[in-house]
Amino acid sequence: MKLSCNEIYDALIDMGLSEEQIKVEIKKKENDYQGYISKEGCLFLVAKDHNLVIEQELYTEFEKEIDYDEFVIPVSEIHENMTNIVLLGKISKIIGINTFIHKDGTPGKVGSFIINDGTAEIKVVLWDDHTQILENKYFRIGEILRVLNGYCKKNQNETLEIHISKKGKVILSPDNIDCGRFPLLEGFNLSDIKDKRKLTLKDLKGKQGFISSIAGRILKIEEFSEKKSKYNQITFFLKFILEDETSSIPVIVWDMQAIKCLKLLEKNISLRLINIIVTINNYTKEKEIHFTKRTEITII
């Protein structure tokens, strides 16, 4: 839905909000962001709070270039509540399938296995129809597989494990694996997990494209502003500088992610960025980090 400010205002009225309520909520947003955002921008945020969907396609150019393997996350970097997880690794242990009865009285199945990618290993839990792959005769220790659309949670023992969402899947022996991108999968000893050298900001100077994870601390917030999208709608722009002991790099964030980041970021705070893109700025010709739809921030 592509709406002007007047249309957004009218839509909120149609949803049952009074003019006074809208003014109060706009005023609260102005106070929350201490003058960073105009009244027009605050109206946009109020609309978002009330689930008024305003279509914007800010990441299409990146999405077209990203394949599943570019979203692969090292097992060693998985944390609780992470979603949309893509893994690539080897089966190191098969735990098998158990049956049970759902609360509605229908029969159910749960199975699990351990995946190891050379950085660490983690349990993967499958439910009901997803357990069928465990019965495949080629599902055996040492085989490479890809996990799509998993999410991470802690079990009763407070140990992290991956669960497959309803739209997720496990692909056994996936095609077209670029071994150059996943060298730890080639012949590593499943009983000997080796530490993977952490990527530094200096390393990013020689890279371009998807990066699964990078850590650093906030040097400064260089800019936060409102801009007009190609649909002539309000969007938000945030630029901050990330540094570590080796180098520094600009980080670019758009739309509602910029708002969320602004609330989190403080000078000298240390964080980890997960699922990002490294690109070259067309004007400065320097490398910079861009957020994607799946980017996550962990304070460390």
Question: Top keywords for this entry?
Answer:
300 residues, alpha+beta, OB fold (Dihydrolipoamide Acetyltransferase, E2P), 3 domains, five-stranded mixed barrel, five-stranded mixed β-barrel
Give the name of the CATH architecture of the largest domain: Beta Barrel
User: Roughly how much helix do the residues carry, as a percent range?
Assistant: 10-25%
- Rounded to the nearest angstrom, the radius of gyration is 23 Å
Compute the number of strand runs: 10
Strand order of the largest sheet: 1-2-3-5-4
Number of helices: 6
> In one word, what is the shape?
globular
What is the level 1 CATH name of the largest domain?
Mainly Beta
Which stretches of 5+ consecutive residues score pLDDT under 50? Answer: 56-66, 190-197
N to C succession of SSEs: HHHHEEEEEHEEEHEE
Structural class: alpha+beta
What proportion strand? 35-45%
Average pLDDT taken over every residue? 81
The largest β sheet comes out as: 5 strands, mixed, barrel
